[in-house]
Amino acid sequence: MKTTIIRSKRQWEKNVDGNSPVALFQRWDWGEIQKQCGAKAFCFGYFKKNTCIGVALAVIVKAKRGNFLHVRHGPILADWDAKTFASIISHLKKIAREEYCVCVRISPCIENNEEYKTMFHKTGGIPAAIHAMDEEYSLVLDVGISEEQILANMRKTTRYEIRKAQKLGVSIEKSTDPKSLSVFFDLYNKTAIRQGFVEHKSIKEEFGVFASENRAVHIMGIVDGKPIASAIILFVGSEAIYRHGASVHSSIPASYLVQWEAICEAKRRGMDKYNFWGISPTDDHNHPWYGLTLFKKGFGGYVRETLHAYDFPVSRRYWAFRIIELVRKRIRGYL
Predict the structure, then answer these.
(1) What CATH number was assigned to the domain covering residues 2-133+308-331?
(2) Going residue by residue through the chain (335 aa), what tens digit of pLDDT does each one get?
């Protein structure tokens, strides 16, 4: 197997679209976003007899607990055979050592089944101590049906909140201008303080890159000229993705109408699915995502589950790294 750096966006996207079109974090544009944010990213292509059999966008994640080489939503392979996978892991571990990382972390967009778990285990993988992330559990809505049917499939209270927002005069504004994000960040900061989560750091770069190709939209719910709810939607492959949301605490359910407009926008753009993104893996009321999951599930859809992230250690420092992640996971309520 030959390994090379792929420098053609067209060639890269062809592999992603052909083998894992929903893998957002393996998109060429995601690599560009990481570079804009100062991260080191590699676009590896794996070839046999001049045929590309797989790709892996690998990013060096710098963290106080230890740096690691992360392949989010990847690698993407035409055929998941054990020998090819082992060769790719061997190559990625070599890169990780050269970059002074503690491990390679793989969080692929593949089915959560025993066959893949066995393959990862036999290749030296350990289930990561991190909580379910990168939409390991996501809620996906089929938007290929009529708006009337989508509404009929919703929870009764969700339909009620959408109509209530309309009756209370919530208006919708949409923008692809990065300058509109000042509205989002104002709401996002308030949401983070209220709900106690750490704000994402690359939202501006993410929106800018995707919006420049008309693949992102910022949707705002306005009441009396004041934005009270906001969402950033990406359009990737045949899916619309609810990537980020923010709102102020209010008796006016503007967030429901914002989501409904996002679903309708997905239909207008010819998308097959609307991906509400990550949800809680359980119905535990104490899970940090319980409230958000309840909100999302009200719109209908089905749960899509992928394999949990696996670590492939390359340093003895990995075990201290792992303990820190286990402690943080418990403190934050994910256990």
Answers:
(1) 3.40.630.30
(2) 999 999 999 999 999 999 999 999 999 999 999 999 999 999 999 999 999 999 999 999 999 999 999 999 999 999 999 999 999 999 999 999 999 999 999 999 999 999 999 999 999 999 999 998 889 999 999 999 999 999 999 999 999 999 999 999 999 999 999 999 999 999 999 998 888 787 888 999 999 999 999 999 999 999 999 999 999 999 999 999 999 999 999 999 999 999 999 999 999 999 999 999 999 998 888 888 899 999 999 999 999 999 999 999 999 999 999 999 999 999 888 86
For residue 288, cis peptide bond before it (omega within 30 degrees of 0): no
Give this prediction's pTM: 0.94
Cα(204)–Cα(183) distance, rounded to whole angstroms? 12
Distance CA 258, CA 220 (A): 7
How far apart CA 46 and CA 153 sit, in angstroms, is: 43
Matching CATH topology for 2-133+308-331 and 137-305?
A: yes
Domain ranges of the chain: 2-133+308-331, 137-305
The answer to whether the CB of 267 falls within 8 A of the CB of 143 is yes
Q: Does domain 137-305 have CATH number 3.10.105.10?
A: no
